[in-house]
TrEMBL record:
Alphabetical keyword list: NADP, Oxidoreductase
Entry keyword annotation includes Coiled coil: no
Residues of the site described as Lowers pKa of active site Tyr: K74
Provenance organism: Acholeplasma oculi
Domain NADP-dependent oxidoreductase: 16-263
GO MF terms, alphabetically ordered: oxidoreductase activity, acting on the CH-OH group of donors, NAD or NADP as acceptor
Protein name (database record): Aldo/keto reductase
Length: 279
């Protein structure tokens, strides 16, 4: 499995399983367990998803050595800057997952107050230094959020996880992250189903058929070949396998360019600058 080396030397599997809207309880447990049996070694969860304890239990029950699995979680709230509440949320995340350490902890959404992001970051740094997290990063950070954060960090973020798919290819943000040696992860690779509709679907199908592949596999390969971590979600075994096999696909440079050309700048998830969580 392809891995990317983060700026602190930690290896992150380039492909993983997303678990947003994977129902807590049996569904999350079974989905993660069957993905691990299939060969997945990277699971993306978040405090907000409510399924951390199921993810952790599936990992423990899989009997796969802990160090072979990479787990990401995310802290969503800034708790109005109350450090003790931030620490409580992080401790509870560690307890729910119950897998020793967390490989990567992210600030789920930026606050529009840079000082608030700075404060949460300083708490993540202390958990990193205590070896509770192997890597720390951010999510949904625009260039301006990161530029402000980078002015005062002790430890540079290792990752920024953002919406990225053929309709929003994030070329400018990706360039900025590469320049700062911050790994980009794509979320929502299927653009809330829009890649399976209309002209986008026709164009992707045309490319897919040349490789005997599916549209989802072409998108996964496109992201991986741009050196972006891909974490598609599915609760269906056949789709988990289909997506997993997307890692093997090698696209030509011209097909990657064709997919880049499908960009419409269309954001389908929340705009990080207008997030009702904080406004
Ligand atoms: N940091 C953030 O703010 C943030 C925001 C959103 C998501 N994320 C992360 O990124 C992950 C991926 O994003 P996402 O879950 O929103 O969307 P996604 O992975 O783009 O799409 C998931 C949807 O596509 C379907 N699907 C999966 N594989 C398919 C295939 N091979 N063919 C056809 N349909 C397929 C799934 O249905 P079934 O499950 O029914 O198969 C589900 O409806 C999340 O799970 C989460 O871990 C992070």
């Amino acid at each position: 499995m392809k891995q990317f080396k983060l700026n602190n030397g930690v290896l992150m599997p380039a492909f993983g399983l997303g678990t947003f809207r994977v129902e807590p309880g049996e569904s999350a447990y079974e989905t993660v367990l069957s993905a691990l049996k299939m060969g997945y070694r990277h699971i993306d969860t978040a405090i907000m998803y409510g399924n951390e304890s199921d993810v952790g239990k599936a990992i423990r029950d899989s009997l796969i050595p802990r160090e072979e699995i990479f787990v990401t979680s995310k802290i969503a709230k800034h708790y109005l800057g109350d450090k003790s509440l931030i620490m409580k949320a992080l401790d509870e995340s560690l307890e729910r997952l119950n897998i020793g350490y967390i490989d990567l902890m992210l600030i789920h959404w930026p606050n529009q107050d840079d000082a608030m992001n700075q404060l949460v970051w300083s708490v993540l740094e202390s958990y990193y230094e205590a070896k509770k997290f192997r890597a720390i990063g951010v999510s949904n950070f625009q260039k301006h959020h990161l530029t402000a954060l980078l002015k005062n960090v002790k430890i540079k973020p290792q990752v920024n996880q953002v919406e990225c798919h053929p309709l929003l290819n994030q070329t400018a943000l990706h360039k900025f992250l590469v320049e700062h040696d911050i790994q980009m992860t794509s979320y929502g690779p299927f653009a809330k189903g829009k890649v399976f509709e209309g002209q986008t679907f026709e164009a992707l199908t045309e490319i897919a058929k040349d490789y005997g592949a599916t549209v989802s596999q072409v998108i996964i390969a496109w992201g991986l070949m741009r050196n972006i971590v891909m974490i598609p979600k599915s609760v269906h075994e056949e789709r988990l396998l289909e997506n997993f096999k997307g890692q093997e696909l090698v696209l030509s440079a011209s097909d990657i360019e064709k997919i880049n050309g499908l960009n419409r700048g269309s954001r389908l998830y929340t705009d990080p600058d207008n997030n009702t969580i904080y406004l």
